[in-house]
Specification:
The complex is a heterodimer of chains A (79) and B (197).
Chain A: H1 19-35, H2 39-52, H3 58-71
Helix pairs in contact in A: 1-3, 2-3
Chain B: H1 13-27, H2 33-46, H3 49-61, H4 63-71, H5 73-79, E1 89-94, E2 99-104, H6 113-116, H7 121-124, H8 126-134, H9 136-142, E3 152-157, E4 162-167, H10 179-183, H11 188-192
Parallel strand pairs in B: 1-4, 2-3
Classes of the chains: A mainly alpha (79), B alpha/beta (197).
């Protein structure tokens, strides 16, 4: 697992509670840019995942949405 | 590096899922590790509430800027070098003595990242998302902000296209402060609308 833990911000909050959260967040951003799709596409999946399990930790819903999006990607994307 | 590190332990189930996903997307040529690192770093280090605070301080000290900011947030924040992904508009809503604004995303966690960084855990929580639109005065009171009964509360539900930011009222007694000093007064919670400055 890559990534170092960042220090908390001055107000004591961590941006990402664990490195995997940052990874998941970054993958969604990167994928949306790479695929040039509207953020709304990901957002709809995120909303559905949150509704599926509202008490699940937030970034787990995010991961599930990203996995669903990935599963729906057409064929081979390698350039 | 010395000493034990959390990630010397075997990866958890979720860490495995994330690693698998990253490997898959990398194999497909859709992401690469360096780019992901850069995104994480920028949100951990560079993009945060200080951006929004600069916008607020500029608005307080420059009435014409404030007019532009309230009329069209996206180009106005771009003047200061801030902006989000294409298609994401920022709308700035002004607090006044008779009107208090507060932002929420009822469905997920839409938030003005470019100006505030990533949202705190409570902003993403089911209670905040559900209750802020239904009973804002009570939720704000619980969060420590008591508003007089004659103050109108406007709750702004963010979406993928529109991210709201609250322009807090300038605190009394700050007339002699410069923009830099004013920036230091502006808090994330004030720009979300859950706290006074």
């Amino acid at each position: 697992m890559r990534g170092i833990e960042a220090p908390p911000r001055r107000n004591g909050e961590l941006v990402f509670a664990a490195p995997w959260e940052g990874r998941v967040f970054a993958m969604a951003i990167a994928l949306q840019q790479r695929l040039a799709v509207p953020w709304d596409d990901f957002r709809h999946r995120l909303i559905a995942e949150i509704e599926r399990d509202p008490q699940r930790p937030y970034y787990e819903s995010w991961l599930a949405a990203l996995e669903a999006l990935t599963a729906d990607l057409p064929g081979d994307q390698s350039s | 590096m010395t000493g034990p590190h959390p990630h010397d332990a075997p990866p958890s189930a979720i860490e495995q899922r994330v690693a698998t996903l990253e490997a898959l997307l990398t194999d497909k040529g859709l992401v690469n590790a360096e780019f992901l690192d850069a995104i994480v770093r920028s949100y951990e280090n560079d993009i945060g509430p200080r951006n929004g605070a600069r916008v607020v301080a500029r608005a307080w000290t420059d009435p014409e800027y404030q007019q532009r900011l309230l009329a069209e947030g996206t180009p106005a924040i771009a003047e200061l070098g801030f902006g989000g992904p294409e298609g994401q508009h920022v709308v700035v809503v002004e607090n006044r003595p008779s009107v208090h604004n507060v932002i929420v995303c009822t469905l997920c966690s839409c938030y003005p990242w470019a100006l505030l960084g990533l949202p705190p855990v409570w902003y993403k929580s089911p209670p905040y998302r559900a209750r802020m639109v239904r009973e804002p005065r009570a939720v704000l009171r619980e969060m420590g902000l008591e508003l007089a009964d004659d103050v109108e509360i406007r709750v702004w539900d963010s979406s993928a296209e529109i991210r709201y930011l609250v322009l807090p009222q300038r605190p009394a007694g700050t007339e002699d402060l410069d923009e830099e000093q004013l920036t230091a007064l502006v808090t994330r919670d004030g720009m979300v609308g859950v706290a006074a400055l």
